[in-house]
Design goal:
Helices cover 48% and strands 4% of the residues. It has two domains: 106 residues; 161 residues, Orthogonal Bundle (hpI Integrase, Chain A), CATH 1.10.443.10. With 350 residues, it is mainly alpha-helical. α6 runs antiparallel to α7, α6 packs across α10 and α7 runs antiparallel to α9. A three-stranded antiparallel beta sheet has the order 1-2-3.
């Protein structure tokens, strides 16, 4: 038996699940990458996947696999780099268990990610958001569901993965209405809701009866909407709204654009960028329009940042004791005496 098969199994069971406690999405992404890699290697070398060894997955084969992703499968550079990161993670783990293949592993780890131009993510203004929401047909169940979904996405800025995982129990429409979600990075967030969003969601919950654990936005069969389904609905309504709002022509509207719209709404409303950064950790890399983030005060137990500029604070006046405040604090001074540096040597402390 080759060394690749037990290494692959230990990589998923021991490295990802036990040691790193990786999420289900990460494990699925790594699984799909290695499945594509084994299929490509088997087709290129003529060796069945069960007999492939680490030495067969050398740097030229990995480079050919990355080119196949872009040319054969039509993947973007981002996807290509994500697949390469999964391959690097596997080979870093293999370097610890199989040092006899150190040369092959080092050549694969030396493959760099490809650079690419970052596209400027656009956002929607208020008339464009209204046109997008008005494109939903409220006379049908699908239109009312999509209207509630788009309104919630534009007001809260939830990621598409967070929208698909919402349940009825995550909504709190009473006093202090909010929506709770468990999002990226295993972070729990609670986002307040406006009165308009609360009214729309309340009508949707009354129409779509179910258990607290049921998905908030479901299909006709009661299953959660998929990522592709949400992106398809957004594209459909964006095309329909472009006939009414000409400014939507030429804009690619996605769920991330709605998330970006939420951030720009807060910026235009005068909300401090440090507050926006709590929910928008990756926004600044895509959007040069956001103002620079203010330096945060150094808390206890954190390393001081030498590049951070501390805000100017006026020095408070010194408070004198009562007995000194009654008397004059002006002391007589003598005229300064000049000292010749050549004759009088500088005084040194004892």
């Amino acid at each position: 038996m080759s060394a690749l098969a037990p290494t692959l199994q230990a990589f998923f069971t021991d490295r990802l699940i036990r040691q790193r406690h990786a999420s289900d999405n990460t494990i699925a992404a790594y699984r799909d990458t290695l499945r594509l890699l084994l299929g490509f290697a088997s087709q290129r070398t003529g060796i069945p996947p069960s007999r492939l060894d680490i030495v067969d997955l050398d740097a030229p084969l990995i480079a050919g696999f990355l080119d196949h992703l872009e040319t054969g499968r039509g993947n973007s550079v981002r996807t290509r780099n994500a697949r390469l990161a999964a391959v690097h993670s596997l080979f870093r783990y293999a370097a610890l268990t199989h040092p006899e293949h150190a040369e092959t592993i080092a050549r694969v780890l030396a493959i760099p990610p490809k650079r690419f131009n970052r596209a400027l993510v656009t956002y929607l203004d208020e008339p464009e958001v209204d046109a997008l929401l008005a494109a939903c047909d409220l006379s049908t169940r699908t239109g009312r569901r999509d209207h509630a979904l788009l309104l919630l996405a534009a007001q809260t800025g939830l990621r598409i993965s967070e929208l698909t995982s919402l349940t009825r129990a995550d909504l709190h429409l009473g006093a202090g209405a909010n929506v709770a979600c468990h999002g990226k990075g295993r972070k729990d967030r609670i986002t307040p809701l406006t009165a308009t969003t609360v009214a729309v969601l309340r009508h949707w919950l009354d129409e779509q009866a179910g258990n607290p654990t049921d998905p908030l936005f479901s299909t006709r069969r009661g299953r959660p909407l998929s990522r592709d389904a949400i992106e398809h609905r957004i594209t459909h309504y964006a095309t329909k709204a472009a006939t009414v709002c000409p400014s939507l022509h030429g804009k690619t509207i996605t769920a991330h654009v709605l998330r970006h719209t939420t951030a720009m709404r807060l910026v235009h409303a005068g909300v401090d960028t440090s507050v926006i950064a709590l929910a928008r950790t990756r926004q600044r890399r895509h959007d040069p329009d956001l103002p620079a983030r203010r330096p945060q005060p150094q808390g206890k137990g954190t390393r001081p940042n030498p590049t951070a500029q501390r805000p100017h604070r006026p020095i408070p006046p010194t408070r004198q004791p009562d007995q000194l405040a009654r008397s004059a604090l002006i002391m007589p001074t003598s005229p300064p005496q000049t000292r010749c540096p050549a004759r009088d040597p500088p005084r040194t402390s004892a």
